[in-house]
Amino acid sequence: MEIRPEEPTDFDAIDAVVAAAFGQRDEADLVKRLRALNAYRAFVAVDGDVVGHIAFTQVALDPEVGLVLMGLAPLSVRPDAQRQGVGTALTQHGLTSLRGVADACVVLGSPAYYPRFGFAARDGLTCVYDVTPEHFMAVELRPGALAGVRGVVQYDPVF
């Protein structure tokens, strides 16, 4: 399996993977909107065909504290390729690519899945969306970046 940046020739395959992974079009349509953002990074997992996709976009913290924060969303793996390490490989690759570019990354996701990558709920760091605290997590990409940081993470309106 190869992990690489998404390319325009992948867009139709990505659309199909994301829609299949979520069982609906909402997240696939979101990915299309996210591509228009300046701070968008995305990768595909290819095993013959595109079997997975991950996207990262810049998020803001209110109040602003001078940190560069990225948000992971969405992570998608084609149903027939799930539970084979595709999502893990995409997430690890994506987070590695952000080191030196961003201070931290946040995710709205499963507390049973994302902690394996270092994500954890952070006291004082909340999300603009009404979610339970254990589902909103962050991981430092620069050691100490989130020490003492408090505020509300704001996502781009395309979300």
Overview of this structure, please?
- It is a single chain.
- By secondary structure, this protein is α+β, with helices and mostly antiparallel strands.
- It is 21% helix and 33% strand.
- The protein contains 3 helices and 8 strands.
- The chain has helices at 11-22, 26-34, 86-98; strands at 2-5, 40-47, 49-62, 69-77, 104-108, 125-127, 136-140, 151-154.
- Strands 1, 2, 3, 4, 5, 6, 7 and 8 form an 8-stranded mixed β-sheet that branches.
- The longest helix is centred in the middle third of the chain and has 13 residues, at 86-98.
The best one-word shape is globular
Helix content: 10-25%
Low-confidence stretches: none
How would a textbook summarize the main sheet?
8 strands, mixed
- How large is the radius of gyration? 15 Å
Question: What's the total count of β strands?
Answer: 8
Short description:
With 159 residues, the protein is of the alpha+beta class. It has 3 helices and 8 strands. The protein is 21% helix and 33% strand.
